[in-house]
Amino acid sequence: MRYSLLTSRLRLLLLTGLLAAAAPAVQAQRAAGPNRPADFLDPSFHKQRRELLRQALPARSVAVLFAAPVRNRANDVDFVYHQSPDFYYLTGYEEPEAVLVLFKEPQTIQGQAGVTEALFVQPRDPKAEQWTGRRLGTEGTKRELQMQFVADNKEFATAGIKWADFITVHFLELPTDVRDNSRDPADLFNLVATFRQQAAVPADFNPRQAELYASIERYGVANAASLKPYLENLSKQIPALAQDKYIQNYLRATTDAERQKAVAARPVTRFDMSTLDEALDRLRGVKTAPELALLRRAVRISAVGQQEVMKATRPDMGEMELQGLHEYVYKKYGAEFEGYPSIVGAGANGCVLHYIANDKPKVQNELLLMDCGAEYHGYTADVTRTIPPSGKFSPAQRQIYELVLAAQEAGFAACKPGADFQAPDKAARQVVTDGLLKLGLIKKPEEARTYFPHGTSHHLGLDVHDRGSNGPLQAGHVITVEPGIYIPEGSPCDKKWWNIGVRIEDDVLITEKGYENLSREAPRTVAEVEAMMAKPSALDDFKLPELR
Questions:
Q1: Per-residue pLDDT at 34
Q2: What pLDDT digit, counting tens, does each position of 217-231 carry?
Q3: How large is the average pLDDT for residues 228-252?
Q4: How far is CA 494 from the centre of its chain?
Q5: Cα 99 to chain center, whole Å?
Q6: So which residues are the signal peptide here (predicted)?
Q7: What predicted TM-score, i.e. pTM, was given to this entire model?
Q8: Tens-place pLDDT, residues 300-314
Q9: CA-CA distance, 120 to 152, in Å (whole number)?
Q10: Which CATH superfamily groups domain 286-534?
């Protein structure tokens, strides 16, 4: 996943070293009104999340969050709308052109006293709804989502929020690549512009600079060994950073005492982009029981998808065809979308971590890596299996596969509450390094990263690479354990290993006593995979006419 916030990228760089193994996707708007599934998160869940976030705010402050932009696919066709996971987490609202405002202390808004939360949403519009689907509108939002204060988004500009009275204004990175719909005076473009103008956000406010400042404050002492070279490199690339006094003073510090002094000298501003970011990391990282129910279903659907595709796979099938089988299973069980573009890569394609073309006409008998995850009511699974299309691993394929499997077992064993977030990665990486040395693929331990270039774990939830503090593991965290070995053609090793790519990925819930493998229904061992592939498939007799 390509993180939008620099702090998120730094968090991964400094604490986990993850390289994403999947990319994000888009999600449709849930239809307003009756006749929809009954197992969405209850409005009380979102209300509790808002209140916990509000409690994390300092005195005399306000927090502002915007709905995600509508994204254009081509000409007059938009992508299926995907709400901001943070916005959905706090509201349950799945439509665009909206803004949420949370007040630390109760306010009076449009004559209504005691307001601590205000949601401004797009109004009902029968003509638009005939084309693009029903909207909740203000009354529907009040009724369905049980917000304290709801108003038409056109009223955001005239709501009378006293922005100047707040000591601190909290927000996440503001969307800047947003189209301005000249026919809509309260689209996202105008909502953001109204906020910037009324809250007096400086025209030259630099979110990247703010994120770097927050990173120095958060990591500047404890993670100086990683942060300092990162900032030095950025300073060489970006002239403005080389002239930034705060950043350069920090870089000149040589001891922890000097670094603490430099960190403490952060320029004062009333605009804060880090408090919300860190609070949402803490909240979203620990899953509640309602969230786990949805995650479990997403993971089980994905595991069944792996089972069914194993049974159906033949060497003469194409990557795209096999992708379609995974995604059919998802739809069959009510998963609205994929949590990210499916990765179905045979041979050399399996050695490309973000391979999503999936257009090889025949997989033949090269190892087939399938990294696929169903998204159920917003929550996504992330399950990877690697299989031999013939149904039997070759000796070389089996050696690499069993090495990755052993590494995953070591990663599982490190999954326990209180363990460092990097513990599964360290355990898995040691097994891979020792195994590659023994097989003769590498001569020095440090060469192992050539074949195992990504991290072993990431949080999982509303995002495939979800928010999380990446501190010690806690009960309620859901993470992946996904070691891999990728040996592309031309690698400096025996040719018998070329084009073997193996990743085995499971979704793990950290419990009070250890862990639970949520995706255990997907076969993992060589014997289990080969046995599943020997079973008949419901698709064996499914034949489509040949197109000429």
A1: 67
A2: 989 999 999 899 999
A3: 92
A4: 37
A5: 22
A6: 1-28
A7: 0.91
A8: 999 999 999 999 999
A9: 5
A10: Creatinase/methionine aminopeptidase superfamily (3.90.230.10)
CATH 3.40.50.2000 fits 43-199, yes or no: no
Task: Enumerate the β-bridge partners of residue 264.
Answer: none
Helix (H, G, I), strand (E, B) or coil at 121: strand
Place of tokens 């993670």: 223
Please state, in angstroms and as integers, the Cα–Cα distance from residue 32 to each residue in 46, 66, 188, 365, following that order.
17, 20, 20, 47
Helix, strand, coil share of the chain (percent; to 5): 40, 15, 45
Question: Do 43-199 and 286-534 show the same overall fold?
Answer: no
Question: Six-digit token pair at 322?
Answer: 């096999």
Mean pLDDT rounded to a whole number for the chain: 93
Amino acid residing at 413: A
DSSP state letters, 456-501: S--B-SSSSS-----SS--TT-EEEE--EEEE-TT-SS-GGGTTEE
Pairing of strands 99-109, 112-121: antiparallel
Domain ranges of the chain: 43-199, 208-269, 286-534
Which tokens belong to 509? 């819930």
Instruction: Enter the tokens of residue 343.
Output: 């990765």
CA 78 to chain CA centroid, Å, is 22
Contact status, residue 507 vs residue 478, Cβ threshold 8 Å: yes
pLDDT in tens, 104-138: 999 999 999 999 999 999 999 999 999 999 999 99
Two tokens at 350?
């399996």
